[in-house]
Amino acid sequence: MSRRRRAAALFAAAVGCAVLAASLTSGYGDSLAERYGPLRPVLVAAADLPRGKLLDPRRAARLLEVRQIPQRFVPPGALVAPGQAIGQAPLVTIGAGNYLLSPQLRLPRSDAPKPPSVPGGRTPVELTVSGGEAIVALGVDPRTIRVDVVVTTEQEFGDPGRTYVAAPAVDLLALVQSPPSPGTPAGVAGWSATLALDRDQALELIEAEAFAHDLRLLPSLG
């Protein structure tokens, strides 16, 4: 085979591989779209966004980015463009990699309440919890409300587990969204809460954090 024919054969093979790769990629993309819906833009924190720090245009351009995810995984209230966040401040610290949700932001207020002091006989205790979305969705400073801490125990050795209020109407001193853990489903956030607890509540909840299935915050009705 001449050098010219060999070059032509190699070129034809390369074109064929490129066409095949494009076909496979297109088919994979079509399969994902059919299964999870078309891709939609979501606004994501490229770095930690501190609670109460105003997002001006310069900070938004540096700290926010738009990603494309399947429609099925877009969480309710997700922002889609940096312009929707400009001029607002996070109600809680938003960790890098988390979606920006509309209930997490508000216009800054000059008369924002001061952080509550720890009541007498109580100690600030930081715990990993769930349910922070419900607190943020109230649209008020989380530090101005009280919460019930609900514990759900694991099922083991014939024990079906149980759910009970371990600490009713306790002061919420801080609420921070944690970075997503590997394998966490899209739109599911973890939270770190600092609560004003008495000694017995602190001991029970620290133990529950280690062994229980879930510690959940609920807005207190009491």
Give a description of the structure.
With 222 residues, the chain is α+β, with helices and mostly antiparallel strands. The chain has two domains: 39-106, Type Iii Antifreeze Protein Isoform Hplc 12 (Alpha-Beta Complex); 123-219, no CATH class. It is 27% helix and 28% strand. The chain contains four helices and nine strands. Strands 5-8-7-6-9 form a five-stranded antiparallel beta sheet. A two-stranded antiparallel sheet has the order 1-2. The protein has a two-stranded antiparallel ribbon with strand order 3-4. The protein is globular. It starts with a helix and ends with a strand.
Quick check: average pLDDT?
Answer: 79
What's the number of helices?
A: 4
Q: Give the termini separation.
A: 89 Å
The figure for the number of domains is 2
Rg calc = 25 Å
Approximately how much helix is present in the residues?
25-40%
Query: Numbering strands along the chain, what is their spatial order in the largest sheet?
Result: 5-8-7-6-9
General form? globular
Q: Sheet bearing the most strands, described?
A: 5 strands, antiparallel
Strand content range:
25-35%
- Taken in chain order, the helices and strands follow as HEHEEEEHEEEHE
Number-wise, the strands total 9
